[in-house]
Design brief:
By secondary structure, the protein is mostly helical. The protein has two domains: about 1-115; about 120-180, no CATH class. It contains seven helices and two strands; from the N terminus they run H-H-H-H-H-E-E-H-H. The longest helix is centred in the N-terminal third of the chain and has 23 residues, at about 5-25. It starts with a helix and ends with a helix.
């Protein structure tokens, strides 16, 4: 295992999450446009991930451990200004899943993100929008009748269970907002 790359990837993921939380806390997110500070960080992280991939291939568990592999996935997942790179990462993740070098959910989330960003139906049902009452609802799903079989193959719970989890999270969020000061 390459501890230097693992540490670097995990640090990049932590900075991504720290900035995201900071922007939420300050009220700058959510917003209608891609926040310039978030975009700059995502572009920087993607650039570094491209270099690592170019040299070593996809940074899976064998190269960077579980945390490093998760961090690499998050960096790819947040590379939304570079859809071509995201699509390349889907292909690399397919191979890594086949080798059991990454968790299957990583492929599901990234592939669905690529599909929804390009206006196509998602395959695993991991990407959610909100309905007219601001409750979580999945973006359109290709062949929805068999989505739970596909989800199970990659170690995900059912779509119905996931939607319930997201609805409960939104209920708790709303309850916290409505509590008197």
């Amino acid at each position: 295992m390459n501890h230097n790359f693992a540490d670097e990837l995990v640090t990049m993921m932590a900075e991504d999450q720290r900035l995201l939380q900071q922007l939420f806390d300050s009220g700058e997110l959510p917003s209608e446009s891609y926040h310039p500070r978030m975009k700059a960080l995502h572009v920087n992280n993607a650039s570094r991930l491209k270099t690592i991939i170019g040299r070593y291939g996809w940074p899976g568990i064998s190269l960077v451990g579980d945390d490093g592999a998760k961090a690499a996935w998050l960096i790819a997942q947040h590379s939304v200004s570079e859809p071509g790179f995201m699509a390349e990462c889907v292909s690399l993740l397919e191979g890594a899943v086949a080798r059991e070098d990454v968790a299957g959910w990583q492929l599901a989330f990234l592939q669905d993100r690529v599909h929804t960003l390009s206006g196509k139906p998602q395959y695993y049902g991991t990407q959610f929008d909100v309905d007219e009452n601001s409750w979580p609802t999945p973006f359109p799903i290709e062949d929805v009748a068999t989505v739970n079989e596909r989800r199970a193959r990659l170690g995900l719970n059912t779509l119905e269970e996931r939607q319930q989890q997201m609805t409960e999270r939104e209920r708790r969020r709303r309850a916290n907002i409505e509590k008197p000061g």
